[in-house]
Amino acid sequence: MRFFLHPQASEELEQAIQFYQLQQAGLEKRFIEAVEDSINRVCRNPLIYRKIDESARKCRLLHFPYAIVFRVASERIEIIAVMHLRREPDYWKSRK
Questions:
Q1: Which residues 6+ apart lie within 8 Å of 72 measured at CB?
Q2: DSSP for the chain?
Q3: What is the Cα–Cα distance from 9 to 73, expressed in whole angstroms?
Q4: How far is CA 18 from the centre of its chain?
Q5: What is the four-CA torsion angle of 63, 1, 70, 39, rounded to 10 degrees?
Q6: Is a pLDDT exceeding 80 seen at residue 8?
Q7: What is the mean pLDDT of residues 31-40?
Q8: Domains of the chain: which residue ranges?
Q9: What average pLDDT does the chain have?
Q10: Which CATH number is 2-87's, of 3.30.2310.20, 3.40.50.2000, 3.40.50.300, 3.30.160.20?
């Protein structure tokens, strides 16, 4: 299944990559790999992930305090947030 990255989710992803890049050499690469792994898992079987809203689901990243928040739309996955798990939990709900 294909996926679409919401512009604000893309922005969140870039900010997280920059943060990890400043923390430790190579850590941003491990973060990117964790994001790619989560997206691949979601695309393979999106309905196994827990619903957190009427239409949204959440897939946690391995080894990082982030999750991919997504919706299943006809023939694609819409990633609406790359959410830090210890910050405002519902900030993404206004995204269309």
A1: 46, 47, 55, 57, 78
A2: -EEEE-HHHHHHHHHHHHHHHHHSTTHHHHHHHHHHHHHHHHHH-GGGSPBSSSSEEEEEPSSSSEEEEEEEETTEEEEEEEEETTS-TTGGGG--
A3: 17
A4: 16
A5: 10
A6: yes
A7: 97
A8: 2-87
A9: 93
A10: 3.30.2310.20
For residue 29, how many other CB atoms are within 10 A of its CB? 12
Burial 77-94 (b: 16+ CB within 10 A, else e): bbbbbbbbeeeeeeebee
Q: What is the pTM of this model?
A: 0.91
pLDDT of residue 12: 96
Which residue matches tokens 């910050």? Answer: 87
Residue 66 CA to residue 73 CA, distance in Å, equals 22
pLDDT on residue 75: 86
pLDDT the model gives residue 95: 81
